[in-house]
C-alpha cells in the first residue's frame, strides 16, 4: 500500500534530499540538526550551491513525498545515493592564539566566543574573576602554553606631535592628571581615545596634549605594574596580598574593620585601583568606643597614630581629635562650607592643598599638626607652628589653626577627646 507523507522538509534542506527516500532523508535531517551550533557551520559557498539547486528543483520539492517499503536492494541503492550527496563543509573554529591584546569594547566572554573557548577557562588562565575589569591594551592568555609568559600591557601609541607623556601612578585619575598638567580632562581623554568610563592603571603611559614634547629617544615599552613591596604594617596591622576579585570593601569586611580604616592605613582613596599581587596593610579590628561609629573610630585611630609618629604630646593629639569631631564629626566628608572638605574641613582656596589632598585623611592630619613634617611646608600653619600652643586653652589652640567663625564650639569636645585618646592608647 502506498502512503503519502504530509511532513515537509525545511526549505533550506529540500535540495539535498530531493529523490532520497523520506526515511533516509529524515535520518540525515535529524543528524544535521542535532549538531551544536558552535561545533560546525555550513560553508557559505556550498550553501549558495544548495540554494541554487533548490531554486531549480523547487516545484518538484513542493510535491508531497511518498514512502515505499524498504527492500534490501532499495536500501543498497539509497545508501549509494546518500554517499553520493555533496559533503557538508565544516568551518573549524578559529584557532586561539597564545595571547590576545584587549581592544575597546571587548569583554572576556566575547573574546572567548571568538576563539571557541569557555569564558571560565579564559578567566582562570589570567587569574581573573567574574567581576574583574579588563582594559584596552591588556594582554590576556588564551592557551595554557602562554601561562609561563607574564601578561603585560601593550605599548601605547606614541603621543601626537606637540604632546608629552605621563606614566600613571597609584591613586591617579584622568582629571587629576589633567589638572596637574594644566589641560582639560576632555583633552586628555580625547588624546588617548578614552571615555569617561575608561580605566587607567599604574604603569600605563598616556599622552598629555599641549605639554612639553617628550625626549627624542623612544620610551621603553611599559612593563606590567610590579606588585607593591610589602609595606611595614602599622601598629597592630597585618599585611595582606590582594588576589583576583578582591575589593577594599570586601577585604575590610573580611577582617572586621571599616573600608576607611583600610584606605587610611595604605594612603589610598575611594578612587584608587588595587591589583592582584599588591600587598596592603589591614589594621587590626577597631576597639568599641561608646558613642562613636566604626568610621569615626578608624579616623580617630589615624589621628592618634600620626600624632604618635610625629611625637605630638597627648594634649595636642586630643586637640586634633576634638577639632576633627567639631569640623566633620570625625568623618572624611566630601562636602562642607564653601570649598571646605575632608576630616578637618580644610579649604583648597586657602592653600591647604588640592581637593584630592585635603580629602586624604592621613595628609590632612599631618597638615593639621604642622611642624617639620608638614606636607604644606610654610604655606599653612599647623598646631606645632603656633608659638606657645601648649599654654593656650583647648579652644584657643584649635582656633589658632582652624580660624573658625565659631571659635567657642571646640570647648565641648575637650573631655570626650581625652576619653577617646585614653581608649585608643
Automatic annotation (TrEMBL):
Limits of the LysM domain: 98-142, 164-208, 238-282
Highest taxon above the source species: Bacteria
Entries under CDD domains matching the protein: LysM
Signal peptide (from-to): 1-39
Family annotation (SUPFAM superfamilies): LysM domain (SSF54106)
Alphabetically ordered keywords of this record: Signal
PANTHER family per record: LYSM DOMAIN-CONTAINING GPI-ANCHORED PROTEIN 2, MEMBRANE-BOUND LYTIC MUREIN TRANSGLYCOSYLASE D
Annotated protein name in UniProt: LysM repeat protein
Organism field: Microbacterium kyungheense
Amino acid at each position: 500500500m502506498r502512503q503519502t507523507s504530509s511532513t515537509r522538509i525545511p526549505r533550506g534542506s529540500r535540495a539535498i534530499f530531493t529523490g532520497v527516500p523520506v526515511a533516509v532523508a529524515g535520518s540525515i535531517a535529524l543528524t544535521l540538526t542535532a549538531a551544536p551550533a558552535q561545533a560546525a557551520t555550513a560553508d557559505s559557498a556550498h550553501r549558495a550551491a544548495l540554494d541554487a539547486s533548490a531554486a531549480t528543483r523547487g516545484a518538484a520539492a513542493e510535491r508531497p513525498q511518498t514512502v515505499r517499503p524498504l527492500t534490501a536492494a532499495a536500501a543498497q541503492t539509497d545508501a549509494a545515493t546518500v554517499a553520493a550527496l555533496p559533503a557538508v563543509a565544516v568551518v573549524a573554529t578559529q584557532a586561539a592564539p597564545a595571547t590576545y591584546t584587549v581592544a575597546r569594547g571587548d569583554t572576556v566572554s566575547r573574546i572567548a566566543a571568538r576563539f571557541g573557548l569557555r569564558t571560565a577557562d579564559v578567566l582562570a588562565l589570567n587569574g581573573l574573576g567574574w567581576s574583574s575589569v579588563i582594559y584596552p591594551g591588556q594582554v590576556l592568555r588564551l592557551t595554557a602554553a602562554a601561562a609561563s609568559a607574564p601578561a603585560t600591557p601593550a605599548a601605547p601609541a606614541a603621543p601626537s606631535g606637540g604632546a608629552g607623556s605621563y606614566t600613571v601612578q597609584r591613586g591617579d585619575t584622568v582629571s587629576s592628571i589633567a589638572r596637574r598638567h594644566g589641560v582639560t580632562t576632555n583633552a586628555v581623554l580625547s588624546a588617548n581615545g578614552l571615555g569617561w568610563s575608561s580605566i587607567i592603571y599604574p604603569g600605563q603611559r598616556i599622552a598629555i596634549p599641549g605639554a612639553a614634547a617628550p625626549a627624542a629617544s623612544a620610551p621603553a615599552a611599559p612593563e606590567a605594574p610590579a606588585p607593591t613591596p610589602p609595606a611595614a604594617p602599622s601598629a597592630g596591622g597585618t599585611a595582606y596580598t590582594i588576589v583576583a576579585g578582591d575589593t577594599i570593601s570586601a577585604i575590610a569586611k573580611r577582617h572586621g574593620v571599616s573600608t576607611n580604616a583600610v584606605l587610611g592605613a595604605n594612603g589610598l582613596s575611594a578612587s584608587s585601583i588595587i591589583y592582584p599581587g599588591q600587598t596592603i596593610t589591614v589594621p587590626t579590628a577597631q576597639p568599641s568606643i561608646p558613642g562613636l561609629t566604626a568610621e569615626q573610630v578608624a579616623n580617630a585611630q589615624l589621628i592618634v597614630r600620626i600624632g604618635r609618629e610625629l611625637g605630638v604630646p597627648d594634649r595636642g593629639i586630643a586637640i586634633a581629635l576634638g577639632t576633627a569631631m567639631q569640623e566633620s564629626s570625625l568623618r572624611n566628608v566630601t562636602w562642607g562650607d564653601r570649598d571646605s572638605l575632608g576630616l578637618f574641613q580644610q579649604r583648597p582656596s586657602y592653600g591647604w592643598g588640592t581637593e584630592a589632598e585635603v580629602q586624604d585623611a592621613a595628609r590632612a592630619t599631618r597638615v593639621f599638626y604642622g611642624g617639620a613634617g608638614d606636607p604644606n611646608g610654610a604655606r599653612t600653619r599647623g598646631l606645632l607652628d603656633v608659638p606657645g600652643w601648649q599654654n593656650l586653652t583647648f579652644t584657643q589652640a584649635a582656633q589658632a589653626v582652624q580660624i573658625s567663625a565659631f571659635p567657642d564650639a571646640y570647648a565641648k569636645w575637650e573631655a570626650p577627646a581625652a576619653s577617646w585618646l585614653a581608649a585608643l592608647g
